[in-house]
Design a protein that fits this description.
Blueprint: E1 7-8, H1 26-29, E2 41-46, H2 61-67, E3 75-76, E4 81-82, E5 88-94, H3 101-118, E6 123-128, H4 134-145, E7 149-154, H5 173-179, E8 188-193, H6 200-208, E9 212-215, H7 216-222, H8 224-236, E10 241-247, H9 269-281, E11 285-291, H10 302-334
Parallel strand pairs: 2-5, 2-6, 6-11, 7-8, 7-10, 8-9, 10-11
Antiparallel strand pairs: 1-5, 3-4
């Protein structure tokens, strides 16, 4: 059995006593990895929320998400895709330090470096945690692909706060990536930004760095498909790979009551699901995270459930990407 340093096995393993020979639950499919089986996709928890500006229990999200695995099936009826055909496992969580926040970020970066070295073909599905986890995660992602990388961010906030006033927080991941030279602003596209959730100064900073921003109002008026297409072109122009980060506060407060920073007039559930499906289809998208859910503030786990659907819908797009690639390969073989 392979053991990866700084990666702990899942704390919660949820199984349902109910069995139906014609139905597969996510808990039956997305099982803990035993360190030996081949896998293509790996779920990894990043349970950190001490760096959140708002009070947040986002560190509990990976385990609360696992508790819901037995409640949903692997079949996407809209796209006629069954995810159980995908070799995916739950790898567990990156080990966090109890009090040292910067060490937690170091653990995330080094832990993911270790994962990518041990499993070079793995597609990572990362579950936060607050949005601060994206900065060390993308740093590991950049090392993996060596060349330039792009980011598509679905979020109400720009996340370019200065690093002097409070250090690395859930409001600074994009600033941290730019200031560290990890990602260039011209390769970052943000979708769903919201009025009264950002400042004019930070918008001007983002513009000065070449970041492309699409607001929630633009999503409502221009359509999510158009903006996702534009964002992929921006993030993919001259880059080796694209990293997708989804902050669940991009949703309107009616759809996401369990986020630390709720907004009125945000995106709808279907706009977000359509967005992640399209992003999952793009062959240049090679990393994905979803962050900023607080199960302690979540009515009937509504936001955590939505987070699980976001994750599964992204993987639906990923599976359709594979199917299209296989069809092309078969076509070349026939010629």
């Amino acid at each position: 059995m392979r053991k990866i340093d700084l990666l702990n096995p899942p704390e919660i393993i949820r199984q349902s006593h109910w069995r139906d020979r014609y139905e597969t639950k996510v808990s039956q499919w997305l099982r803990p990895w035993n360190g030996e089986e081949d896998l293509e996709v790996g779920l990894i928890g990043l349970p950190l929320s001490k760096t959140s500006i708002s009070i947040s229990g986002a560190s509990t999200t990976p385990n609360v998400l696992r508790e819901l695995f037995a409640n949903v099936t692997t079949y996407n009826i809209d796209h006629d895709v069954d995810l159980q055909e995908l070799k995916a496992y739950d790898l567990g969580d990156i080990q966090m330090h109890m009090t040292d926040l910067l060490r937690c970020h170091t653990h995330i970066e080094q832990g993911l470096n270790n994962v990518y070295k041990a499993l070079p073909k793995l597609f990572p599905i990362l579950v936060g945690g607050d949005h601060s986890v994206t900065c060390p995660s993308v740093k590991a992602f950049k090392k993996r692909y060596k060349g330039k990388v792009g980011i598509v961010q679905l979020d109400s906030h720009m996340d370019v706060r200065n690093l002097e006033d409070g250090g690395p927080t859930n409001g600074t991941p994009i600033r941290g990536l730019i200031e560290s030279g990890t990602v260039e602003g011209c390769h970052i596209a943000q979708i769903g930004l919201h009025s009264f959730a950002n400042s004019k100064h930070y918008r001007e900073y983002a513009q000065s760095k070449g970041i492309t921003a699409f607001t929630a109002r633009q999503v409502a008026r221009e359509g999510i498909e158009t903006l996702v297409d534009e964002s992929m072109k921006i993030a993919g122009n001259g880059t080796e790979a694209i990293y997708v980060t989804v902050d669940m506060d991009v949703l309107d407060q009616a759809y996401a009551p369990g986020v630390p920073a709720m907004v009125a007039g945000g995106m709808t559930s279907w706009q977000l699901l359509d967005a992640v499906y399209l992003l999952g289809q793009n062959p240049k998208v090679l990393g994905f995270d979803v962050v900023c859910v607080d199960p302690m503030q979540d009515y009937r786990r509504a936001t955590v459930r939505m987070t699980l659907h976001v994750l599964l819908t992204f993987l639906t797009g990923y599976m359709n990407r594979k199917a299209c690639s296989n069809e092309k390969d078969n076509g070349r073989d026939e010629k």
